[in-house]
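To whoever is on call:

I kicked off a structure prediction for a single chain this morning and the downstream step that reads the tokens threw a length-mismatch warning. I double-checked the sequence; it's 312 residues and nothing unusual in it as far as I can see. Pasting both halves so you can look.
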Amino acid sequence: MIAQINNLFRRNLLAKISSIIAAILLWIIVMDNQNPVIEGSYTVPLSFTDVPEGYKVLHNDQTIKVNLRGPRSYFVNYESKDCRAYSNLNGLDEGSHEVNIEAKFPQGFELVSITPNQTQIKLDPYIERQMPADLIVTGAAGANATVTKVTQSSDTVTVIGARTAAESVTRVIGYVGLSGNKEDFSLQVPMTAINADGRALQDVRVVPSFMNVEVKITLGLMKKLVPIEPDIVVSEGLEIAKITLDPEQIEIAGQELIVAPIDKIKTQTVTVPLGETSIKQTVNLIIPTGVTVKSNQVDIAIELKPKAANQP
């Protein structure tokens, strides 16, 4: 029986081997036509590994193009999420660095190129800043009602974030809405960090993020709208070309004997730094004793010009 099997196997052995080789070659040709090797690309977000503790990575290249070569079926079966572009930041310290970009992708692909293959990053240390917590009262109390006192749980807050973002914070503000109230009330006010343009900054954290506020309201006080008068000191040889106040007037309230004689509210002194010809600043108001206001601050924009030669 075994001899018969051996004879059967050996009979026309060369032809059988040739047939097997031909079949393999035919399969390769068919598969090459049906599933050719092609080039394609995936656009993926750039990530970072081994980021030094206590630093935030600042960079401009948000996405990276990874160009790969592989069978066409691979590009059908895999998606961008299966590919990754990253830079290793191990050993780097504060400041700017140019780093290489690497890629990881499914087995069976061949890397053609990474675009871009380098990126400029900055390691920005996280810092904390103590800043005043400014409350802005909006809206109006009810008829014949006046806000006499606004008390907040803390005069300061802590701003936490990467140095570039944290140092761009100029104010931390919260809005207290009166909403026609005639009685004392309390609320939690969300605090927001803003920059010099008045834009809220999302890359920093304010602690506490909410301020506990109590508002005291009194009925029957006299109210009056008066102009705000800025007190400005400028360098020798310059004079004020333009002043912009926001707001230009303020509502004051209190006993009639105190409020009636008041015809203006002055600001604290603003000294324009030497060499500056324009500034923007938030300034406290000088509020007389016994007088209440919704907000004790005003935004001032000052523009200067050279004093005329014939002026003293």
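Update from on-call: the warning came from a stale cache, not from the record. Cleared it. Sanity check on the structure: The chain has a mean pLDDT of 88.
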